Structures are given as C-alpha cells and as structure tokens.
Amino acid sequence: MKTVSKLLLALTFIAAGFYLQNCGTTTKVMGSWTNPETSGNSYSKVMVVGLTSNIVARRNVEDQLVAALQKEGINAMASINVFTPNFMQKQPSKEEILNQIRKDGYDGVLTVALLDERTESRYVPGSTMYAPVSRYGYYGSFGGYYSTMYATHYDPGYYTTDKTYVVETNLYDASSETLVWSAQTETYDPSNPETGARSLSLAIADKMDRDGVLK
After folding, report:
1. 215 domain-assigned
2. Helix and strand element counts for the chain (H, E)
3. Mean pLDDT score of the chain, rounded to an integer?
4. What CA–CA distances, in Å, run from 24 to 21, 67, 86, 115, 196?
5. Given pLDDT bands bounded at 50, 70 and 90, which one contains residue 141?
6. Is 110 among the domain residues?
7. Which of 91, 100, 113, 79 is nearest to 9 (CA)?
8. What spatial distance separates the first Cα and last Cα of the chain, rounded to whole Å?
9. What is the distance between the alpha carbons of residues 50 and 131, in angstroms, rounded to a whole number?
10. CB of 130 within 8 A of CB of 152?
C-alpha cells in the first residue's frame, strides 16, 4: 500500500509540471476509491500538498484546493505556507515533515500529482461565406461586373491542439500514514493554470464530500 512517506519525500525532487493551458476547461472524475478499513473516518483539518517542484504551479494548485475545501467547511492549509521553498531546499526527512504536520494538528494530508499529459492535434475546417450585392449596371466594364458579383469571404482551416491532464489526488491519515481515499481526474483544455486548477479543485472537493471523507 502506498504511504504518505513516499509521496511527501517526493515533494523535494519531483518535477512534474502543473501548468495547465489551452481553451475551455472541464474536469471529470474518472474513478475514486475509499479504503474500506477507514470508511468510518472523516477529516476536518487537512494539509494540501502539491507534488511538483514548480513553485508557481504548486502555489496555484494548493491555493485552489484549499479554497474549494474551505467552501465544504474543511479547515485546510496549503503546504507551501508551512513547508516553504527555502525549507524544502534543505531536503528535510519525511519524519521532519510528518512531525510538523502532526504538531500543527492536521488529521489528513491531501496530495496532488500530475500523472500524464496528453496532447492531440485536430483540424478545424475553414468556411466560405457569400454576400449578395446589387447586380444593376454591372455589364459595362470588368470593374462593374467584378464589384457587383457575389463577394466571397473565406476563412481558412487550421490545426488546434487539445490537451488533457490526468491528475491523481490522494488523502492520507496523518497519524497512521494510511491511504484513505484516492481519485483520478482528467482536465480538458484549461485556458490557463488558474482555471485548470480551479476546475480540478472543485471536482475533487465535491467528490470527497459525496464519498463521505470530509466532516
């Protein structure tokens, strides 16, 4: 079974990007799992940990998840406010990290990691629009004929790129380090990092609430 130790230790080294960029944004929960051995547990104070060495991306995804959890009545904190970039550069042991989490009274640790980024190109066909104009008196010259015939406006086709980000979110018991809940999501075509993280966070908080792991 996965433990929070491995994922928290990976926070020091992992370089997976959380930059989510493109057009319209949708997040879909592809599946979730709740540990039957901890099904009676619920969590009210949660540390949110974005597993990426990209500081801007980490701040973005953690802040968005904290905001979404707080809307569900959960006391949540972004780990970057406790484990600052300068602190993580010292490569603290997992014991140091866990001791601080427990000392501050957190009963859950929510980790977020980018598993995959898929890029697909597709062709958007062009279109032709005809605009009728007056035909009176156009036979006298080429110019008259040319200017009075159907005007044609053509929009050429183009290629566009669609991106899908597969993210895994895990909730661990801060005391036992046991994996309590896990979900995988797909976020499609976020227009920028903020909208992508917001879409992901709202979907995760809603699913956690419906799965009964939040107090």
Report:
1. no
2. 6, 8
3. 79
4. 10, 21, 35, 21, 9
5. low
6. yes
7. 91
8. 24
9. 54
10. yes
68 and 172 part of one domain: yes
- Looking at residue 138, the DSSP 8-state letter turns out to be -
pTM over 0.70: yes
26, 96: one domain: yes
Alpha-helical regions (H) of 13-115: 55-71, 85-89, 94-103
Tokens in use for 162?
């669609």
Residue with tokens 């032709």: 128
Tokens describing residue 130: 């005809």
Closest C-alpha to 99, from 191, 190, 210, 8:
8
Mean pLDDT, residues 170-177 taken together: 93
| Both structure tokens of 60 | 């973005």
Domain-embedded: residue 183: yes
What is the domain-level CATH number for residue 114? 3.40.50.10610
The residue type at 74: I
Residues belonging to the chain:
215
* Both tokens assigned to 138: 């156009």
